[in-house]
UniProtKB/TrEMBL annotation:
Residues spanning the membrane: none
Claim: Isomerase is one of the keywords in the record: no
NCBIfam families referenced in this protein's UniProt entry, alphabetically: ispG_gcpE, PRK00366.1
Needed cofactors: [4Fe-4S] cluster
Binding site for [4Fe-4S] cluster: 265, 268, 300, 307
Pathway field: Isoprenoid biosynthesis; isopentenyl diphosphate biosynthesis via DXP pathway; isopentenyl diphosphate from 1-deoxy-D-xylulose 5-phosphate: step 5/6
UniProt-listed Pfam families: GcpE, GcpE_C
Lineage start: Bacteria, Bacillati, Bacillota, Tissierellia, Tissierellales
Gene Ontology molecular functions: 4-hydroxy-3-methylbut-2-en-1-yl diphosphate synthase activity (ferredoxin)
Protein name, entry field: 4-hydroxy-3-methylbut-2-en-1-yl diphosphate synthase (flavodoxin)
Length: 351
């Protein structure tokens, strides 16, 4: 059982972040924001995959104006990602954004930050303060001897204090680095010093394969310690892959229960069927099921139903055939080529 740190709660559109709210999965579009059709199409794919909050870059006023049209076509709330130009944050607020992501350190004069704060107050929007290892003020680098958890954390705290100075507290914070250990250390330290909700991620994590591993270790370690309120797996890949990976991280820790939890054995010389192909097909076949079920696909009788006894449903394969079982109880024996269809039918009959 994970004991989550109780943080403050903010609302991003109709989605609550922090406090006792469920941990949410985010992603970011890689379409041109002003290309409304392409952006909406991508977001709908992300929604189908289970994305709960979407962030998109607002690079100019055309992007900001497109937000209103995009908002009409999607179900999940929008975070506008703002860099350097405070006027774009103001325009995003005016065009139905649900939150603003900015780094106060690159906005410029403090009066510009105040303008953004006042707009967010008026439209009742939260601000996510985004800090990463590549955007730390020189004074913190000098004070804390370079890039480390201290310079990242205290840079973030200063940016939060700027917002608080203008009586603004609807804040979430991210403190990302591409180094997994630095990411973990920074979030741990900030969590000790503040109770603002935290958006977790390992920035610039890399490709789908390596990036998912880095993110699972970094994000998963923090979540297991009760730290974190919303996550993004940052991959050089289709954003849908980010959502799939994020949901699996949460499911593996018992922090999300919607959807199928599939377990399968690594195969060995006892395996007499093409288990790898069966598991691939099973993932495709069962991914649309929203039931909170554990399904086991096992290569032999040693691993299933014995070791997979606690699975809700499963397959234990033999020589070109397999046993279908439910909670450890064998239901039927069927040929390899119809194993998945028969398993799905058993599940459907019980629904």
């Amino acid at each position: 059982m994970i004991n989550r740190k109780l943080t403050k709660k903010v609302k991003v559109g109709n989605v609550e972040v922090g406090g006792n709210s469920p941990i949410t999965v985010q992603s970011m579009t890689n379409t041109n924001t002003k290309d409304v059709k392409s952006t909406v199409s991508q977001i709908k794919r992300l929604e189908e995959a289970g994305c709960e909050i979407i962030r998109m870059a607002v690079n100019d006023l055309e992007d900001a104006k497109a937000l209103r049209e995009i908002k009409k076509e999607i179900r999940i709330p929008i975070i506008s990602d703002i860099q350097f130009d405070y006027k774009l944050a103001l325009a995003a607020c005016e065009n139905d954004s649900d939150a603003i992501r900015l780094n106060p350190g690159n906005i410029g004069a403090e009066w510009k930050i105040k303008e953004v704060v006042e707009a967010c107050k008026f439209y009742n929007l939260p601000i996510r303060v985004g800090v990463n290892s590549g955007s730390i003020k020189q004074e913190f680098l000098d004070k804390y001897n370079g890039v480390n958890e201290n310079s990242i954390t205290y840079s973030g705290l200063e940016e939060v204090e700027i917002l608080e100075k203008y009586n603004f507290k609807d804040i979430a914070v991210s403190l990302k680095a591409s180094n997994v250990n630095l990411t973990i250390a920074s979030y741990r330290k900030f969590s000790e010093l503040s109770d603002y909700p935290l958006h977790l991620g390992v920035t610039e994590a890399g490709t789908n394969y390596k990036g998912t591993i880095k993110s699972a270790i970094g994000i998963g370690t923090l979540l297991a310690e009760g730290i974190g309120d919303t996550i993004r797996v940052s991959l050089t890949s289709d954003p849908v892959d980010e959502v799939i990976a994020g949901r699996e991280i949460l499911k593996s820790l018992g922090l999300k229960t919607e959807g199928i939890d599939m377990i399968s054995c690594p195969t060995c010389a006892r395996t007499k069927v093409d288990l790898i192909e069966i598991v691939k097909k099973a993932e495709d076949k069962f991914e649309k099921l929203n039931d909170n079920l554990t399904i086991a696909i096992m290569g032999c009788a040693v691993n299933g139903p014995g070791e997979a006894r606690e699975a809700d449903y499963g397959i234990a394969c033999g020589n070109k055939e397999g046993l279908i079982f439910k909670k450890g109880e064998i239901i039927k024996k069927v040929p390899e080529e119809v194993l998945l269809e028969e398993l799905l039918q058993v599940i459907e009959n019980d629904r």
